[in-house]
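Q: Is it fine to ask for two folds in a single conversation?
A: Yes, each is treated on its own. Send the first.
Q: Here.
A: Result:
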Amino acid sequence: MEILSPAGNFESLVAAVRSGADAVYLGLKDFSARRNAENFDLEEFTRAAEYCRVRGVKVYVALNTMIKQKEIPVALSAAKEAYARGADAFIVSDLGLISVLREALPKAALHASTQMTVHSPAALKALKALGIKRAVLSREMSREQIREFCAEAKRYDIEVEVFVHGALCMCVSGQCLLSSALGGRSGNRGLCAGPCRLEFSAKGRGRYDLSLKDLSLTAYLNELKEMGVASAKIEGRMKRPEYVAAATAACKKALEGQSDSELTGALKDVFSRSGFTDGYFKGKRGADMFGIRTKDDAAVSSGAFSYLHGIYRNERASVPVDITATIKNGESIKVIFSDGAGNSSVQTADIPDKAVNKKTDKDAVAASLSKLGGTPYFVRSTDISLDDGLFVGASCLNELRRRAVEDLSAKRARKSVLPTGEYTLSEPAVRKAQNRRLYARFNSVSSIPSDLSGVAGLILPLETDFPDQKENILKITHLPRYITDESKVLSRLQTLKEKGVTTAYCDTLCALCLAKDSGFKVIASNFFNCANSYGVTAAKMLGADEITLSAETYMPSAKQLICDLPTGIFAYGRLPLMLTLNCPIKNAKTCEQCKKTSFLTDRMGVKFPVYCRDGYSEVFNCAPIYLADKRDDLSAFDFLLLSFFDETPDTARKIIDGYMCGGSPEGEFTRGIYYNNIP
């Protein structure tokens, strides 16, 4: 199983490689989910790729952010440059960029980032259609779910990658809008401000009910390997090289069946939030998984740095070489270093002298040529052919060895890149929206107004039965945002289909595939994070019949995205800011006390509703989006999604009327993120 380590800069990359990494992942200056890391420009990336190739380590480039329309050509150019310079794979999340890379770089390996929220085997069909070679799973999955996913992934010939160490976001990756809504810095764009690490309390002050401890699954690496996991991934492109070295070395030793209490203790000391957790993996969620970085944690870390720096201070000998030497009377000396991977270096020297006082023996030749300390090589075999009575000085042999190592490294550093072929990036034609319609989503039937005139589609949770309606209205079922039981979802879809429900509102690839397999039309939600027309086209290819643009779409540029599919926007309601499998309310009260709906309060006293559904929780914004008075902007869309959270039927009816006629807002409201051109 591959150990995959983070590299936020060149020193961290060296630390990872020297500590035992089989592969590293890094970001370029743009389009990486850790844009605040130092990252690599193209010249630095070239150096990094060559360094890794010499040492037999793969390099994966993270291009795993949501991409704006105007950025697609820039992202494609960056990918082409990185590919030409030796990138072994690209970690991607944006549907539009994936589809473009598949066409422009057909031989490049694409890995589905954890930002794609792959958490259920149903998504594999979509990943295969997208040309994905590896899936990076959501960090919330249990050992049973990972095992099931791995078994199904084999059928699709898709590798599985699992995070085994590092920070745990409270929100499922790819489903978070908290940083955008509160700070104007998008996690989906690689600039998360980390507001969840600040004070959010379900009960009283001084609590951090959105901050989880760091993950550690080092004790389970061989179990994961047995399941079929191809890559054990370490989070940490924002962390120091010492942390990268410690986490990599700990994983390496764990895979080899070794235990090292000093290393484990130093890893905890160098960075943790009051320890580590394996709660998701073991299926034991709750208060024990929460933690913050305390002053005590910071104090003990300083003592670990010196010890950990020693782990990667020296070169790690990881590449085997076979050495052949031919020393014959009357012939030039010849030495060959071969790496067994098709690379070899042939070095020659003058004809050996006749021995006068002391003749050279085979052991001396082998010893001189095998002095590979300080290089990435170790001797696998030697084959010395030496005539009797000859003398070769140590300086000659040392020079042959030095030249052979240098030449072999130069050859290993080169990478043959498959040709990319010709590809012209052409933007899909923009069309005008037609027959704009309203879709209204409710959490329960009791919130639905008796009069639904003007509403084209009624959206209810999958578990909810639709009421009898006199209106000719489209019935749309909203699948769970996080699916742990596919059979349960499929069974419920079949029941609803028999009752005349024809359409499903889906937040993830997992949900989309289940709905399509059940014969439903699909409306892709804003959590597909689609912000470019290529993504709209890709969603259509996957089976979406309509799509809701990302809630981070910049409204003035939204018209450019109306192309292949009927396109809409989340136009009213409390925007879901976080999706979490670890309920923050449970830290303060029981489920019976909460009754599925409660609040988190931030350090400013602002309240954020929390709603539980089907085994997960959603944290909603403190105020609803209201755009009914932005009629000119809304005219660009085919449909508007109105999402009602706790409104009364009368209030819901009034809001529907406002969107039909252009009513002004009342009470507390927000424009969402649509008018913030987030970087």
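Q: Second one now.
A: Result:
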Amino acid sequence: MSNKTSGEGLDYIAPLQDMAFLLNEVFPLSSSDSLTEKSEESLKEEREQELFVLKQAARFAEQELAPINSECDRQGCQLNDGQVSLPPSMKTAFQKYAQAGWMGLCMPEQWGGQNQSSRLGSLVGELLTSANHAFSMTPALTMSACRALIAYGSDELKQTYLEKMISGQWTGTMCMTEAHCGSDLGLIRTSATVNDDGSYQLKGSKIFISAGSHDASDNIIHLVLARLKDSPISREGIKGLSLFLVPEKVLEKAPENSEEGGQWSKDNNVRCIGIEEKMGVHGNPTCSMSFESSQGFLIGEENKGINAMFAMMNEMRLGTSLQGIGLSERSFQQSLSYAKNRTQMRSLSGIKNPELEADPLIVHPDVRRMLLTQKVFAEGGRALAQFCSQLMDESSESINQERAQLLDMLTPIAKGFCTEVGLESASHAIQIHGGHGFIKETGVEQLYRDGRIATLYEGTSGIQALDLLGRKVLGTQGKSLMSFTKMMHVLGKDNSHLAEDSEIGKLLTTLKSYSKEWPEITMQIGAKAMKNPDEAGAASFDYMMYSGYVVLAYFWAKMAITARTLLDKPPFDSELSKELLENKIDNATFYFERILPRALSHKVAMLSGNQTLKVNF
């Protein structure tokens, strides 16, 4: 398969070969992956269908989204008389996307979706965010709102809203944050009172609502956390929160004796009272929203709204991890192009291009260090996201508790770690471009500005770290962690025949040492935290980063083993290029030798304890 769908000269080229490598070789479909038995022939057809869909998504990302990225950044969104307008090309792109049926790619068929797998959706999601971060947010939020509605909404709500949201005729948002509270949802003040007809009346305001108001869809469906005024536990932090569906427009009933149905045109007192002047993501409006006696409908049970909201939030956290991965990929592509074409100084080991007055940047070892760092974060993160998406596919059928805990543990790692290193990749892009990286002309400064938000929304990196260490690891008595270290052990055991391989053998030996060290470190921190809970808080960020480096090491070892197996299998009959497979092994070696050692510094830092965080100012 060609790695390019439309030739040279594009701002962004979808990494289709690497995606095919993951889908067909590293994480191939098998009959054991599904409760429904499938023949090898049907699995082959499914794989071919996935690659076909990816090609079409790549074409849309390359030709429709990437070319308008900088233009929409410059134009931004406009608020006039309470109405928010998207940049014209952004509005057009969204409507094309919706009309082509992409919104419902992974949604159930009964509401107009295509019922494709999460593993395919993950790769398509990365293509969108790589090409145009601002664009990707509206479809992602809408589909996450649909997930919450499918899981917790009444049949009436599903029948009323899902089909139009899945078609893209309507879009959705997640309304949690208020001006006086960021991630501390227990401080929410937006209130709800029950109406005579069983609906609710909401009053309050929310901030930082992505795509909270715009002109690309006919209606916007807000999922709003609020407190029931008459609830006996209404003041008990998050326990007193309920989740409501609040449309921007509600149904205007048709006159009596009219044969036509009502129109969704009645104003519901949902107002955009401001859009944020942001550091980046200018093509997507971040709104302050006011609900002024707005009609809402309960999703799930009263006072249990946080459960339904987290169904949406966890999906968004995995979606945000794709933003980090896409940021690394886009940063790498733009850096590589520049490094090949920009000439600066001569190579330390001798002139490489005598016909030029200087050698290309790529001949310099430090530039290659940064390029490879971007590359291993993009491809390693992509493998992690693909594994998480397969766990999501299993959960849609019948996931066992061990696999569920594994997905829960990997979610904050994927979100927190991949966005942090994605931002590092964007910083490297600026560095490789030198002074040109600091100006708008090259576009890499926009990558950094847009990507900075990914470490913040859906929970900051610090919150992901606390969630990982506190809830997902210590909270399960280490069971989730042991599930992953078991995978590390099995990978080495199943490939012991490669122990003598000079490259693969070294990877497996190193990975084995981390599979033992990781639980040991966790027990040390857990013991400290039992005496002083602040010990967990003091260690959490370094613990998350340590975990991220080790998790990616596992996936890089797995990819290298897969590549070696394909190269050594006579005759070589893979559709993938030998160059890609050989590069996988070389890049895995780079990751283990140059990147994985960072975990050691995080180990030292997390074990230093809370006493090193004294405040003397």
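Q: Anything structural to flag on that second result?
A: Two points. Residues 305-341 form the longest helix (37 residues). The chain has 17 helices and eleven strands.
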